[in-house]
């Protein structure tokens, strides 16, 4: 179990470092990488919530931490002109304050869930409802349909 968690943590760190390196040159690639990390974290939580994977406190903690961390910095990767070749809707730049607020709400909700740490599958199911609703609200407004 500890080896698995160490591997997950190391992988997340490597992805974070890779994303930081890419961020300097390509904000679109950086934010796409961050969304992949958040999506993978939501997927891990969803698998536990559905009973596809057994409850694993360390995996839950890692997923929630990734969501929180990535969403706190996510809005910083939307400089003017970076909407080209992106799934980001122009509404982001028109409503940057609202976009930032939505990202920070997801981060804050992940922090809240992390602070009370779901103790079982049912707890993860409840947390997914809140986190997933945040994702959906933002995607409806700020993600282009392709």
From TrEMBL:
Entry keywords, A to Z: Electron transport, Heme, Iron, Metal-binding, Signal, Transport
Taxonomy, superkingdom: Bacteria
Binding site for heme c: 135, 138-139
Regions crossing the membrane: none
Keyword Cytoplasm: no
InterPro entries: Cyt_c/b562 (IPR010980), Cyt_c_II (IPR002321), Cyt_c_prime (IPR012127), Cyt_c_prime_subgr (IPR015984)
GO terms classed as biological process: electron transport chain
Post-translational modification: Binds 1 heme group per subunit.
Gene Ontology CC annotation, any one: periplasmic space
Alphabetized SUPFAM superfamilies for the sequence: Cytochromes
Signal peptide: 1-23
Molecular functions (GO terms): electron transfer activity; heme binding; iron ion binding
Name recorded for this polypeptide: Cytochrome C556
Species this chain originates from: Aliirhizobium smilacinae
Taxonomic lineage of the native organism: Bacteria, Pseudomonadati, Pseudomonadota, Alphaproteobacteria, Hyphomicrobiales
């Amino acid at each position: 179990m500890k080896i698995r968690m160490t591997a997950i943590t190391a992988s997340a760190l490597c992805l974070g470092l890779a994303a930081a390196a890419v961020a300097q040159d390509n904000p679109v690639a950086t934010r796409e990488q961050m969304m992949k990390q958040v999506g993978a974290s939501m997927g891990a939580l969803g698998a536990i919530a559905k009973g596809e994977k057994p409850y694993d406190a360390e995996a839950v903690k890692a997923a929630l931490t990734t969501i929180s961390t990535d969403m706190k910095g996510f809005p910083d990767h939307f400089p003017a002109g970076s909407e080209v070749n992106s799934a980001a809707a122009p509404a982001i730049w028109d409503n940057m304050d609202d976009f930032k607020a939505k990202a920070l709400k997801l981060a804050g909700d992940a922090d809240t869930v992390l602070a009370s740490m779901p103790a079982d599958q049912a707890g993860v199911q409840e947390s997914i409802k809140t986190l997933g609703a945040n994702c959906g609200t933002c995607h409806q407004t700020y993600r282009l349909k392709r």
